[in-house]
């Protein structure tokens, strides 16, 4: 088999016309899903730690259910079923954003729960001794320490989230991988396009992982 690779067709016009549009959506989806997932995940974590059965049971079912289903299946189900239920399409991009927030919240919930439980109980008792309510204690004492403890894990999950954004390819959303695919088809070089996409994903994720590792080391020194 004679495999002849030619990357000479890559130039700034190609990147700006095809790749950057997809990269922008991938980064936007990662940012929005991270923020939404952390907020929703924190609510789920607090529900599971509340000790109240009527809050613990639905939160546990949601988290365990989402973590047991492949993300690509959730993406497809939401994209295909929701329009059938509401009677109109919602678009691949909107569907991807909602799906990622709902899915990632389950994973961020477990991270948040572990972070909250990592705060020494003495800190909680100290807040209670000062007359703080449960909400004040969580907001002023527990959550700030928990966020610092779990920041490296949160960022690592965000990197995984960025990698998973390539799955929106299944519903036709224009992400970074889709941008490379379109460029490859237009210039008759699909193999080179996919290889370039793989290299870019690797470089970005490796660089981010290295920065998270450095951050983890600094946090360890502070402790």
TrEMBL record:
Q: What is this protein called?
A: Glutamate/aspartate import permease protein GltK
What molecular functions are annotated in GO for this chain? transmembrane transporter activity
Give the GO biological process terms. Answer: amino acid transport
User: How is the quaternary structure described?
Assistant: The complex is composed of two ATP-binding proteins (GltL), two transmembrane proteins (GltJ and GltK) and a solute-binding protein (GltI).
Superkingdom in the source lineage: Bacteria
For this record, the Gene Ontology CC terms, alphabetical, are: ATP-binding cassette (ABC) transporter complex
Similarity comment: family membership: Belongs to the binding-protein-dependent transport system permease family. HisMQ subfamily.
Ranges for domain ABC transmembrane type-1 come to 23-212
Q: Where does it localize? A: Cell inner membrane; Cell membrane
The way it spans or sits in the membrane comes to: Multi-pass membrane protein
Q: Name one Pfam family in it.
A: BPD_transp_1
- Per UniProt, which keywords does this protein have? Amino-acid transport, Cell membrane, Membrane, Transmembrane, Transmembrane helix, Transport
Q: Which InterPro entries match?
A: AA_ABC_transptr_permease_3TM, ArtM/GltK/GlnP/TcyL/YhdX-like, MetI-like, MetI-like_sf
Transmembrane segments annotated in the record for this chain: 23-47, 68-86, 92-109, 153-174, 194-212
Q: What does this protein do?
A: Part of the ABC transporter complex GltIJKL involved in glutamate and aspartate uptake. Probably responsible for the translocation of the substrate across the membrane.
